[in-house]
Amino acid sequence: MKKVAKIFIILLSICFLLILAIFTYVAIIISQAGDTISLDLAKLNSYNSHVKIYDHSENELVTTSLKGTETINIEELPDYVPQAFISIEDKKFYSHKGINLGRIVKAGFNNLINGYAKEGASTITQQLIKNTHLNSEKTLSRKIQEAYLATQLEQKYDKNEILETYLNVIYFGNSAYGIESAAQNYFGHSAKELTLEESATLAGLIKSPKTYSPILNPENSLKRRNLVLKNMYVDQIITEEEYNNSVSSPIKTIKRNNNNDIFNKLLLEEAMDILDLSERDISTMGYKIYTYINKDLQNIIQSKLTSFDNIENAVVVIDNSNNSVIAYIGNAEQKRQVGSTIKPILCYAPAFEFGTLSPITPICDEEINFSGYNPKNANGKYLGWISAREALAKSLNIPAVKTLEYTGLNRSINTAKNFGISFDSDDNHLALALGATKYGESLQNMTNAYATFAKKGKFSKLNLIKRIETSSGNVVYQAKNELTQAVQEDTAFLINDILKDTIKNGTAKRLGTLDIPLCAKTGTVGVNSNNTNTDAWCIAYSPQYTVGTWYGNTTNDIKNNLLSTQNGGTVATDCNKIVWAELKKRYNLNKDFEAPKSVRQCKIDALSLNNQKIELANEKTPEMYIVSDWFSSRFAPTKVSDNFENLTAPVLKMQVNNEISLSWEGLEYQNYELYKFVDDNEELIKVFEGKNDTFTYKLPIPTKNTDFYVLTKYKNQIEKSLSSNIEKFYVKNNILTKENPIKKIKKGWFF
Fold this sequence. Notes:
By secondary structure, this protein is α+β, with helices and mostly antiparallel strands. It has 22 helices and 26 strands. The strands form eight sheets. The chain has a five-stranded mixed β-sheet with strand order 2-1-3-11-12. A five-stranded antiparallel β-sheet has the order 5-4-16-15-14. Strands 21, 22, 24, 25 and 26 form a five-stranded antiparallel β-sheet that branches. Strand 19 and strand 20 form a beta hairpin. The longest helix is centred in the first third of the chain and has 35 residues.
């Protein structure tokens, strides 16, 4: 018992010393905070800050300011608005004194294990202090200062004053400070008019404004909003009926028009991620953001773009050398259905990567049903057996779906993820081949994915920001071009080679007049019920640049859709052409893609190919029966065709009635010459072009004995020939009358 008691006393002493040490540390931090940081009620509504943004020439692009925002009284808001924030951020808001000790103990224990302030356990009061008095450092000392000032604030303001101030200054992303600004920014009306669903969406933003942005990440926003609604239901703030109705409603945000405003907000979001700071911190500390934007190029492109009523457009131009954005127009970060632009990334690149297909592989373009899924080609026509090359260049739907099935969903999706494409857990069906993902993808991500093909299959994160400096000029961030191999170089080259055909004779042929070595892919998202389109895409690239262009109806009003003639191959390609014409004025764009050592060009027997077999041509294969294409050396064919090893002699047949009928079975790769031999004279009757069919030739009955035969040759190879059998016709020396005298004699013998 004495030993147990001794251990207990030791542990108790350790706990006492630990608690004493903690209190001492807290006291020191609070003492230091009293000297350097104190509660300043004026800061609760201060917005005097700015951030400078520069273009590629380091000329000032814009200065964004965080100006005073319009405030709103909490009494003017529907009751569910503040309750949504309390439910998700601070359930015990009305009972604590600025800090939640239970949450602090739990978070403190986890933070000690991790060695830093990983968890905050911040109350609404603490969040208000952090956003107005402190920086975003994740340190224990800052958390202590935050808690200390929060308790002071609770002594100065009552709960409703704190909550009202919090709602008026908290950051909602998209450069929106305060709930009134956020309501106008996201939904186009005052916070007084917020619906339950909209309130829950804004409350869900607070944790991470970019991660849960309804514009940048609508799927995350929807999940987070529904979590807020669930909490409100559990907390008995809303009824079960209100909860069920709300979670089934989609999130609808307003359209944003100002291109500079959109891009500046995107840059600030990027800087916040890079520096792990709030926008307020970045602005108040005077950071400078340097970009790759070519302002002149961007302005000229924007001035030349064709616009349509109620239709948005967007353009992204990437410099492939460092994966930087040199022009950014419109709302290119919003996710939209991508249509056929997904095909090279999700269908054909994985198929080439794993050897499922080669560009010349025959695929049957036909009506088909995949266990209830019945895809159609856009024009309702089917071409039968065609190559994978032609199927992709012409953007046919059936071959794309078949290719996805051949390769396998999991392998294809994992490969597409290497290109930076995102998928939801519900994206597990063959309609993905036609771009039918749950949430779609943004133009900036799709353009960056195609830049991966241009960079020999190497993917890198898109660089919007070149570097970030402090107000004194110290560099705190420098962009890096870190590459990962999304697909092998041979796969990238095969896709590039096919997408050149899209410009030569496919859906992007309007780019052909530029006379630039380009690869391209278009995409159109249509509405079958009224033959209109919601989205039109074109992404084109050279070794130096990648250009993505998009037109779309984001209003969800079907009357604002694009016409059927306004599609990826027309309006989006025309827009893309405008960009390339401007690039051509500034840069030498003659560089083309070079074949890597990992690919080879093989001569294939076309006759075997017609029978859906990929076999190498042999030495005797006629030139007209040789087709060439590129293969990955990993999957190149090795079997040599045995076609054309020997000529096939025709078998001539003759029938005599009132005329002579000559016939034989032909082959498409052999030509035929029909001869007759009379009185030691040989005469060519006719030459027949080869075909897989029966040849028949009729002529009058000769007056002299005649021999017939057929001579066959390979097409375009006159030096080799082979004869058929000889069919002989004999003329009888009789006097021809109406009655055959031979028959008369025969009748006399037998009757």
